[in-house]
Structure prediction request, 746 residues.
Amino acid sequence: MRAAGHSVRTRLRDRIAASDPGLLRLTAGLRTVGAIALTLAVLSLLGTDVPHLVAGAMAAMVATFAIREKQPGAQAVTLALGLPVALASVSLSAVLGERRVVGDAFFVVLIFCAVYGRRFGDRGTALGLIAFQVYFLSLFVGATVSALPGLYGAITVAFASSAVLRFAVVPATPAGVLVRLRLAFRARLAQLVSAQLDLLDAGEDDMDKALQAVREGTARLHETAMMIQGRLEEGTPDESAARLVQRRIADAEIAAERLGLLLLSARTAERADTLTLHLPGAPAPSVAVPAAPDESFATLRRDLRALHTLVLRAGDDSGTALAHVRNRLLGYRDEENLPPASAAVQDVFRGIGEAARAVLGLRIALDGPQDESDDSPATARSREELDAEEAALDGGAEEPAQEEQTGLRRPTTRAAVQVAVGSSLAIAGGELLSTQRWYWAVLTCWIVFINTSSTGEILVKGYRRLLGTVFGVVAGIALAGLVGQHTVTAFALVLVLIFAMFYTAPLSYTLMSFFVTAMLGLLYTLLHTYSYDVLVLRIEETAIGAVCGVVAAALVLPVQTDRRTNELLVTVLDRLAEVAEAAVGQLSGGPADDLLDKARDLDQALADLRAATQPLTHPVTPLRARRDTARYVVALLETCAYHARTLAATAELLPTHPSIAADPRLRGAAGRTVRNIRAIAARVTDEHAGTKAETGPSIASLLGSDAGTPRYGRITDRVLRHLERLDEAVVGLARPLGVPVETPGR
Prediction:
């Protein structure tokens, strides 16, 4: 019973870790709700009236979610600076409340400064957000000069409560967050292996569903790897430890993605195209090999389950059974005990061996030295390789200085001007609807500009906020009717809705807007200002604010979606060329380079592009052909990034792996691929550029591979395959981007 209970707890922990990597959403929700609850408890004991309770609750929420720094010391400084900023903001709002024109003008200036402050990093962003939101809450509760002492007290209690929750009740150090992210990576890796097992067993009718699950699992694993990458510097004791974790995470991600491709190839009539794993909605290749009756597939199924167990129990040293499982899987890397099967199926067994090796490396990097008493020769060799790689890792090169934009070209300056203009329009339009609650339009205009960079992104965000607001109004009406004037019940429901708002915010902006609006219906009830007309007015003000934001973005220093995506596309192509050139250079015998950082820079650039194309790929977009092209281009780029990552990881093995030797011919053979990437980037930058992409003989033929040449080793064969797939994907990328493709000599 105890073992069963432990197993259930472990599965529940893994499921939570996988759904909320690092428990970041749970931490944010608990901190915010806890800070609000503590504020309400203290203020209630002091006999504070309801308007001040509402002000304190809103201030606690702002003081908690505005702070984004990772180090506790930096968070404490920002929180301490935020209190005087909040007190100054509420004072100015109260003083200027009766001077409408002056108050509106100051509000616009405050908005400009708050957005402009984003150029000073997380602290500038936080202080600007606190200043704006506290000014807004003072308008919401109708702050007056006579009420300032009470508001000062409520805000001070709110900031103190936020500090207690952040540093004492729900602390989160960078090292602790990184540990939880590692657990999430393991859990998501196990989920991906489970999805791959379903792909192995899927019939003809279930292949599309199983393949989509593998796609989603691969994307979720990559998302977690990127989150870990962003926390390594603060969460590890030194740079060498950070680089080791970075390397092992990259190994595991590449091995898992490759295993999925090999499984797909084993089930289909021909080798699977990497694009199949990256293009949403792409149909699965037709099944050519049934999995059920084949003995080799039964063994494959057993070993995939064993790999799944190995991932989940990566930190468990109990007994020898796990060691025997690991020894068997690692033996496949050295061609030991490969079951009789087709070449494609045997490749899957080798892929399982590589994945087991990646899990072993991840375990050593994260959990420290292991018991080696039950190691087989194959496992001992894998450990020696991992130790040699660890010794070869160095501090890496310094990041090149980025060219800083100035003046109105700087994104923060442009955004500040746009928000100021949009807010001015929102104030004017909002006051035409209501002289009392016009600030809702301003709030919407402000929010649609947060974390957006183009007109299309602002349009999509405004649409989502309006949609969430409409449904939230319906929920608010229902909740207000149920609660009536029961203050304690209303505040309890407010806490539930706030937790839901923060927990769902990274997942769905529409859901977040829904919970915010439902919560506001309850707050209006507490302030005795609730009515059906007020909530309808909330929808109208939200619509005006969204429209004003879009108008300002479209007319004032506009950044069109096409221009934004083209800029990011060029960045991705530049990063891709850098990774490919550096990896091939090292594989050709050139000097060592910081390939892991270059590969992660490519991944980050691709993530930025993927986010920027959301307006083009949104389900409601009327431009279907354009949507399909954008999805296809992003999928092709993800395919290129996968091959480039794998080449980079292989190149970093060069000094330590006995099966890899430098081949000077690679540089010349892969030169065409790098030239094509740069030609496409030049054409995207300037559509009138006369650049062209080239196609021609395969990479293998350029290296002189023929019947009289000795067969390449398995690792070298893999390098050639990745080079060829990268070359094909780059040529495929040229066509949808309008770059001519020619074959020299024709």
